[in-house]
Amino acid sequence: MRIEIPMMMLRTHRESIFLLLFSVLVMTLFSTCSPLYPLNPWDDANVYMTIGNAMLGGRELYVDIFDHKGPVLFFLHEAAAVLSRNSFIGIYIVQVVSCFFYLRYSLRTMHLFSSSSFALPLVCLLGIVTYSSDFFCYGDSVEEFTLPLYAHCLYNMLRFVKDDHVPRWWQSFSMGIGAALIFWMKFNLLFFYVGGVMALLYIAWRHKTLKELGTIVHWVLGGMAAVTAFVLGYFAVHGTLDALWESYFMINIFHYHGVATNGEPDVWWFPFLKLVIGALLMLPVVFLRVSKQVKLLVFGTYGVLVLSFATLTVQFYYFLVLFVFFPLLINYIRDYVPSVRAYLAMAFIAIAEMATNWNLVTLSNGTFPVSVLEMAEIINANESEDSEVLTFSSYDTGIYQHTRHLPPNKNYFLSSILDPEIKEEQAEWVASGKVKYLVREIGAVNTCHDYYDVPVPDNYHLIYDKEELFRYRFIWVPHYYLWNLTWTRSFLKYIMDPAVVNQRMQVYERRP
Predict the structure, then answer these.
(1) Number of folded domains in the chain?
(2) What is the pTM of this model?
(3) Of 13, 24, 310, 321, whose CB count within 10 A is highest?
(4) In this structure, are 87 and 146 located in the same domain?
(5) Bridge partners, residue 507, by sequence
(6) Helix 7-30 / helix 119-132 crossing angle, nearest 10 deg
(7) What is the DSSP letter of 128?
(8) Residue 360 counted as domain residue
(9) Is 5 helix (H, G, I), strand (E, B) or coil?
(10) Would you call 345 helix, strand, or coil by DSSP?
(11) Whole-number Cα distances in Å, 1 to 4, 131, 219
(12) CA 28, CA 34: separation in Å to the nearest integer?
């Protein structure tokens, strides 16, 4: 008996295989969690992995070891640590899966408005631009794992508005799971869903489809409740619900924002400037040949999210989530740019993105920051029963992954909040002499380093001291970024100061 496969299913299957292979390629090239890179030098990623290792080793989250991010992020890194405790290979696999679903649902969003074959190469360009941008950084941010969840939800909401398609119960339930995962990683990113619900309520009221929307919301809340029950159950079993409340909610709401600085001016008009810039980024949506309901949904989800950015001290990687809206510009590009020119423009953009990607450039130039590997080699070569390692007045350098040690204290890295208790704990550990090695990174961007800086006791001797390249952000200081590219130095040296500010890595050893 011959089985006939519908052409639509066959095309979808082929597209999925292609996008999965493309996701492997993109993550391998641009994520420093991939086997192509010797390490991930980003302090945030190392904090997540260190805490994941600590939880796998029996430490209680927020009680024995601390960071202010949500528990789901650390559950994810604990699972990754099962596969490898001294590398990011587990996170790399998660990244590939995350990238695949982000691109898959972005492609489905494009197909909602066009059946053109132009959509597939465009979504590939979207993948390159998203993950080669400085907003992606080294890889392994909350915003990165948010992208596929946003893309899935946006596709289903657009389909409901455009085609009056009510998602099946399991599709709505999965949207709720995605919303809850985001809430329990970084709750302010849930504003995307808040804006979407506000827009959908208005649209459903105007079109008398409130009953259908109510069915969707019912299952969405069910999915959120399932994840929330698991998270609260975990902390209830461990008797640490109070620590969850204090560390994830109270600190983030009342103590975190506005303390760490990324160079934003402390003036009243700057939030308004961010709002204006955010509005201009999505101005092309106004010209799309889509219904007013679709535009309202887009501006609802995007607008409320950008509004939340305006009220926060925004780090550059926060903007990665905005790439989820880019597939909506497919009609604009298709209608106004001839196909041949569009393909040439896409090829040029892709090549330019890869040629100026900081990770690839520094890896190929041999200037990728690897001092922590040299530090770990020194510590591992002199391993003994008392070879405990302590980072102080510093971010997480990654030293714990590469020495297979765990932090001896709860607040083991430089915090982005000014807390006298944290400062006192770090000072006591440094002065106690309980650890054999003290490790410090003095970053080129100095947030709270001076506040947490403590004197090194006389019985500790400096055995490693090196400066290495610091990652410059193109959107902030483009002349430094371009200076790091070998192929631009020949002519840039005539028009700019070649001075480069590095970060300093130090190791102190305790001696009698």
Answers:
(1) 2
(2) 0.90
(3) 321
(4) yes
(5) 439, 464
(6) 20
(7) H
(8) no
(9) coil
(10) helix
(11) 10, 46, 40
(12) 5
**Ramachandran category for residue 42: left, alpha or beta (phi over 0 → left; psi -120 to 50 → alpha):** beta
Question: Final residue of a domain: which of 355, 381, 398?
Answer: 355
**Contact indicator for 299, 285 with CB cutoff of 8 Å:** yes
Identify the residue whose tokens are 């006192």.
Answer: 424
Structure tokens at 325: 């809206």
* Helix or strand holding residue 61 (H, E): none
Amino acid 165: pLDDT: 86
User: DSSP per residue over 143-188, as a string?
Assistant: HHHHHHHHHHHHHHHHHHHHH-PPPPHHHHHHHHHHHHHHHTT-GG
Element (H, E) at 197: helix 191-207
In this structure, are 415 and 304 located in the same domain?
no
26 and 114, same domain (yes or no): yes
Secondary-structure breakdown of the chain: helix, strand, coil percentages, each rounded to the nearest 5: 60, 5, 30
Q: Are residues 380 and 326 located together in one domain of the fold? A: no
CA angle 413, 415, 420 (to 5 degrees): 105
Q: What's the token pair of residue 288?
A: 């799309």
Token pair of 320, please? 């990665």
CA gap 162, 35 in Å, rounded: 42
Read out DSSP for 424-443? HHHHHHHHHT--SEEEEEE-
Whether residues 173 and 281 fall in one domain: yes
- Which tens digit of pLDDT belongs to each residue from 353-369? 887 788 988 898 888 99
Round to whole Å and give the CA distance between 316 and 335: 32
List, for residues 270-315, the tens digit of each pLDDT value.
Answer: 666 666 777 777 777 777 777 889 889 988 898 888 887 776 666 7
What's the CA gap between 310 and 276, in Å, rounded? 10
Cross-strand bridge partners of residue 437: 389, 509
Please state, in angstroms and rounded to a whole number, the distance separating the CA atoms of residues 429 and 386. 15
Distance CA 12, CA 42 (A): 36
Structure tokens at 509: 């050893």
Name the burial class of residue 182, with classes exposed (0-12), middle (13-18) and buried (19+) by CB atoms within 10 angstroms of its CB.
buried
- Classify 57 as helix, strand or coil: coil
370-387 pLDDT per residue, tens:
999 999 999 999 888 888
Q: What distance, in Å, lies between the first and last C-alpha atoms of the chain? A: 83
Closest C-alpha to 297, from 161, 147, 206, 146: 161
The residue segments making up the domain with residue 281 are 7-355
Q: What letter does residue 65 receive in the DSSP assignment?
A: B
Give me the amino acid identity at 154.
L
Amino acid making up residue 444: A
Please indicate, yes or no, whether residues 209 and 129 belong to a single structural domain of this protein: yes
Distance CA 305, CA 301 (A): 6
The residue from 310, 325, 355 where one domain ends is: 355
Residue with token string 């430094």: 480
**For residues 92 and 69, is the Cβ–Cβ distance under 8 A?**
no
